[in-house]
């Protein structure tokens, strides 16, 4: 099953140079780094990410992979310096795949190279995604000692038959152990959940929420399962082996999650994300939703610098070969028009509890806010204060809000 396809775009020069337009207004913009670790022991049936198991890696090894990332870091420094970029990193996020399949020392070495190359602001959020069965206390302690501040565990569910449908291999009993270990060594903790898996009941989902809340992580994400074309689970549904996703049940599950998490002291700050007491949001992901800048390192990683988006070739071997040949690994880029940037801002900002200022909307579009209020999709009091914030119903119909305002 091939991972998701890359978008079409303009060719990137071999040296990776960005268009001259990125220089305008570049100074002072928030800047983050995403580091993609594309390795997994097995590919989960629902996954459409750019990940590879050992048999799919060709000439690339997990041991040599960090060297390729370091070469892209050096290339990014040359490209950004050429365009007058001098912002230190405010967030770093190691995602995947399973970053913790690499030794903790390898992740820390990449982090140190980012620090030496760009600088990292004091108090920056440094996150690592982890599978519960890929770490122990010593591993987590090494991450923390190396500068990591936050770990995000892929819990997905506490119910064995749901995990089996998702092809998740970890033991649910392992999750509380590693969450406590992460807390013990000083890391902030997030757990990721998925709801709406075929065969998952509302009672199953309540069980997963109850166990996630009982661990008292700083942050909980809850994502509706989306069936992507070409995934194993999509083929199972097509063959009638498992039931299709029930949209109405997913909506009930979202409402249950919001109620239970609110009762436990978690505040939603983005459609799928809740923070304990509102104090522990994912600052890296907030940077995406706020349309800031980031460089994505690794095969298939996407970047955004001041209205220019670019993305790397997908396969780790192609990625490493380009960098070994002193060429940019970028496969293409696009320069967003003002209209496209506006549409993205509306799409992203209306997902957030902080909302989007109505003053940022064109005059004719502001008139549509009244209809969104009448339809129960945005908070009336917030709209009168000049902020577009979705109601619970609006969160379930977020795309309707975005389409109405663009």
TrEMBL record:
GO terms for cellular component: cytoplasm. One of its GO terms (biological process) is porphyrin-containing compound biosynthetic process. InterPro entries: Aldolase_TIM, Coproporphyrinogen-III_oxidase, Elp3/MiaA/NifB-like_rSAM, HemW-like, rSAM, rSAM_sf. Keywords: 4Fe-4S, Chaperone, Cytoplasm, Heme, Iron, Iron-sulfur, Metal-binding, S-adenosyl-L-methionine. Its main location: cytoplasm. It comes from the Bacteria. The keyword Cytoplasm applies. It is found in: Cytoplasm. Residues 25-267 form the Radical SAM core domain. GO terms for molecular function: 4 iron, 4 sulfur cluster binding; coproporphyrinogen oxidase activity; metal ion binding. Probably acts as a heme chaperone, transferring heme to an unknown acceptor. Binds one molecule of heme per monomer, possibly covalently. Binds 1 [4Fe-4S] cluster. The cluster is coordinated with 3 cysteines and an exchangeable S-adenosyl-L-methionine. PANTHER family: COPROPORPHYRINIGEN III OXIDASE, RADICAL S-ADENOSYL METHIONINE DOMAIN-CONTAINING PROTEIN 1, MITOCHONDRIAL. Belongs to the anaerobic coproporphyrinogen-III oxidase family. HemW subfamily. This is Heme chaperone HemW. It comes from Gulosibacter chungangensis.
């Amino acid at each position: 099953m091939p991972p998701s396809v890359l978008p079409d775009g303009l060719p990137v020069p071999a040296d990776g140079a960005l268009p001259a337009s990125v220089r305008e207004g570049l100074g002072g913009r928030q800047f983050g780094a995403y580091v993609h670790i594309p390795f997994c022991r097995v590919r989960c049936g629902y996954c459409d990410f750019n990940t590879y198991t050992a048999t799919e890696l060709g000439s690339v090894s997990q041991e040599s992979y960090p060297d390729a990332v370091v070469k892209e870091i050096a290339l990014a420094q040359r490209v950004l310096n050429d365009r007058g970029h001098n912002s230190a990193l405010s967030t770093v996020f190691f995602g995947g795949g399973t970053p913790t399949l690499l030794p903790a020392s390898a992740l820390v070495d990449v982090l140190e190279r980012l620090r030496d190359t760009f600088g990292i602001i004091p108090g920056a959020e440094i996150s690592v995604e982890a599978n519960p069965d890929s770490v122990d206390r010593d591993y987590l302690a090494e991450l923390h000692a190396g500068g990591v501040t936050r770990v995000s565990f892929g819990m997905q569910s506490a119910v064995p038959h749901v995990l089996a449908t998702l092809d998740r291999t970890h033991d649910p009993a392992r999750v509380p152990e590693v969450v406590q270990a992460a807390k013990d060594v000083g890391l902030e903790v997030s757990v990721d959940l998925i709801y709406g898996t075929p065969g998952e009941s509302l009672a199953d989902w309540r069980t997963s929420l109850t166990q996630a809340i009982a661990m008292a992580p700083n942050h909980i994400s809850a994502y509706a399962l989306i069936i992507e074309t070409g995934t194993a689970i999509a083929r199972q549904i097509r063959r009638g082996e498992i039931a299709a996703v029930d949209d109405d049940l997913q909506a009930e599950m979202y409402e249950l999650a919001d109620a239970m998490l609110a009762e436990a002291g978690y505040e939603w700050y983005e459609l799928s994300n809740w923070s304990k007491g509102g104090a522990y949001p994912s600052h890296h992901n907030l940077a995406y939703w706020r349309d800031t800048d980031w460089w994505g390192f690794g095969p298939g990683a996407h970047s955004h610098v001041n209205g220019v988006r670019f993305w790397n070739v997908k396969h780790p071997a192609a990625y490493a070969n380009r960098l070994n040949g002193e060429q940019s690994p970028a496969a293409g880029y696009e320069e967003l028009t003002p209209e496209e940037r506006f549409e993205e801002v509306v799409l992203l900002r209306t997902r957030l509890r902080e909302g989007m200022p109505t003053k940022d909307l064109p005059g004719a579009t502001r008139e549509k806010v009244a209809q969104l209020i009448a339809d129960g999709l945005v908070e009336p009091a917030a709209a009168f204060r000049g902020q577009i914030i979705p109601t619970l119903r609006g969160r379930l119909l977020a795309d309707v809000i975005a389409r109405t305002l663009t």
